[in-house]
Amino acid sequence: MRLNNYISSTGICSRREADKLIQQKKVLINGKIAQVGQTVEPGDIVKVNGKKLIQKKNDVYIALNKPVGITCTTERHIKGNIIDYINYPERIFPVGRLDKPSEGLIILTNDGSIVNKILRSENNHEKEYVVTVNKNITQSFIEDMSNGVRIFNPVTNKHVVTKKCKVTKVNNRTFKIVLSQGLNRQIRRMCDAFGYEVIKLQRVRIMDLTLKGIAPGKWRKLTPKEVEGLLK
Length: 232
Fold this sequence. Notes:
By secondary structure, the chain is an alpha+beta fold. The chain has helices at residues 3-9, 15-23, 82-86, 115-119, 139-146, 186-192, 224-231, and strands spanning 27-29, 32-33, 46-48, 51-52, 61-66, 93-95, 103-109, 127-133, 150-153, 158-161, 166-171, 174-179, 198-206, 209-210, 219-221. The strands form three sheets. Strands 5, 6, 7, 8, 11, 12, 13, 14 and 15 form a nine-stranded mixed sheet that branches. Helix 1 (3-9) packs across helix 2 (15-23). 25% of the residues are buried.
């Protein structure tokens, strides 16, 4: 297992924070200063700041129907953060994001190994959304949204054309969209490119997981079968 995943699996921090600790030479493997990208083998002793790490035996997987106004961050000083909202007794973190004005399905876990499996666009894992906009939807809007939209990506500071996706009209001002990407505020930026403003955005599905049985603002643990589906 990669070292940053191993550290994250103990619950002390995220993978990104683990990489920082490694870069700061605060991590030892069998008494030697560890390197970023190093792997941990069975029997290895890993210490952070002199303290031996012990892997958690029980991974936690939670599905939350996130309400509007909750921020998907582990930063506890931010008011309305998702961690304080759920108030789970063990350290967990959200897989991906739903921006503060959006609502719907999001997964939280303490298993750092599933993050890339779910989020990497090349894995083509579907995420489905129901979106309401501020004016009537035209057929050309549906077609243009489906065929890829040129938007600005603030993460790379460049424009990018989104992947082709499935868009279907629900009613005059509501449509469904299925994405395999997760760019920053992607749907809102796509709509904005055609002069539409998003009034409501709800994620209703991640892969085979749906909101069925989860009331707004509530959460539940995933079943073993659901977890197996995520880890495939």
